[in-house]
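Entry 0007
Protein: UPF0248 protein ENP88_02925
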Amino acid sequence: MRKYSAREILNKLKWHPEYDFSKVEIVCMDRFSGSIRISAREIEEIGQKFLFLKDGKMIPQHRIIEIRYGDETVWKRS
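Output (structure tokens):
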């Protein structure tokens, strides 16, 4: 079975008509606070290597540890 990347999952949740992207939450590793949660509403663009946020921050995709849709975890780094 193929393992999908965080980027592939985020793009599916953003563009597939069955999903409401505003229900997505991303959990990322942070060097200072351990982990941070980012709402999909904060994302400007899903790039090849980074998530570009509306406030100008760039989150490297290798720091994504979990993607949640509502109350369900839909992707988790293994």
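Curator remark: The chain is about 15% helix and 45% strand. The chain has a mean pLDDT of 96.
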